[in-house]
Sequence to fold (160 residues):
Amino acid sequence: MITCSACGYDKNPDNAEFCEACGSELQTAIPSPQAPQPPTTDPIFPTPTTNAKLIAKQPSPPIAEYPLDNNAIVGIFDPDSGPVDIDLEIFSGSETVSRNHAEIYPEMGTWKVKDLGSTNGIFIKPAGQTRFSARITTPQILNSGDEVAFGKVRFLFQTP
Fold:
């Protein structure tokens, strides 16, 4: 016999779906308690340092360094497309820099650089190495001490 949880009638047959007294739906089996589920949270990644910077590698640069604290577009100002975050027009070698050359951005605790379809590319020389890598074709992680070349304009990427 099944007891109705709504009205308490306890003479409902074992195969009944509804209470004979009040018409409420009957629970035929006591639901088994579910095992507790682990909390679902997003993985925690360290926030990239907000005081990363690009330090110019040429002698007597017009601007010695650019602080980075968020996404930054590297390129050359163009009246049609507007300003960029890091304008390299006044640097020696700027003729090799495209209007929208690169983007530097924080992602999952690191800093990355990606080519935005530039003509002369982006090259990275990892810290401690003597040569630049091949032109990047996918976003690359920047590590403190890496040298980055936007065309022929070179910078040291640095974090504390």
In short: The chain has no helices and ten strands. The chain has a mean pLDDT of 87.
